[in-house]
Here is the input.
Amino acid sequence: MSKVTALRRREEHKYGGSPEGIKHHYDIGNEFWRLMLGPSYTYSAALFANPNDDLETAQLRKINWHLNSAKVQDAASVLEVGCGWGTILTRLNRLPNVRRAVGLTLSQAQADYLNGLGLDKVEVRVENWASYEPQEKFDSIISIGAFEHFAKPDETQAEKMLVYRDFFERCHRWLSPRGRLSLQTIAFGNMKRHEANEFMITEIYPESDLPYLADVVNAVDGLFEVVAVRNDRFDYARSYDEWLKNLRSRRAEAVSLAGEEQVQRFERFYKLGSVGFRMGKINLLRFCLRPITNDWRATGEPVKTDGSMSLA
Amino acid sequence: MSASRSPVLTVDSVRQHSLLFLAKTLHTDPGKIDADADFDRLGLDSVMAVALILDLEEWSGLDLEPSLLFEYPTINELARYVTASASEQPRANVA
Here is the structure.
């Protein structure tokens, strides 16, 4: 039995992302999230370009960065691993070149919300990437803020790497040779894994663990070429600050939706997160990855995206 | 807490409150903490620093952004900032 099979057997349905851990964090009421996240309804670091950017502009810029990075302009089919409340899927549904978009989530609340939107080209699946078996290849894969949930605190470093490697092997298999994978994740920065704060591990993200930049680079070795990588840790600090502002400005409403205890939990979490990113304890990584292939046409195609695209 | 129960904010009162809080956090005597020393030198980590901010918010009724810890990384600088911003910012109800 291979090591990865053994790990899958041990962790069963929690392998690659614990549904219970996801539910704990995300299924606390869509209305509460909407109040906190604002109209873009996007729960991951925005991409700020100047001091006057508001959150919505910066979220749009982040989405465009990933659409460009995943070469969605040439894509007929797109997979999103961790689709949240569907800001990207909604956008994909409007693009004439996109025939089909699949979103994976482990949150039933997100899936219910998405299925109510009536997106005709979109298929939403409450399914882990580790058990998903698509019948057709995709031209683009996007994964934003899901990778954080793939590994678990009780896994050894070697086991963690098996999970990451498994994910990238699957993405590689699922992508057409000229496709792209665009990935965004929080990563440990200048801190050790064992220094992670108890509150964050048990209260905020149970059964989830972060990668290091080196883990990602090692895990893609031989599968994907790293076209671009950015560390935008201040963008996440600022996103936390903006969400906190939303929460504070409508605090009474937030309390009536989620309860005082939950609101206080998020106030503490976002402040800790903001300070952690500012101190460089944690980083925010965005990757443009292209599959390594022996298809000469694909390999020889010059990179058009360099991570500095303008707003579309 | 309601604004009427909020303390009078002066550089001295904010400094005093912060010193007492940090003394408790760092298990030391308030008199042994240098209000002009960088937080890093005082041995603060991110969790303690956030606890300080949250405590100051609850005590003062002001919104204090985490970035302040990096712009004003000593007790005295932070106390001067908090006192100055008290005159500009409405003191919200913080539970």
In short: The domain at 11-86 of chain B is CATH 1.10.1200.10 (Non-ribosomal Peptide Synthetase Peptidyl Carrier Protein; Chain A).
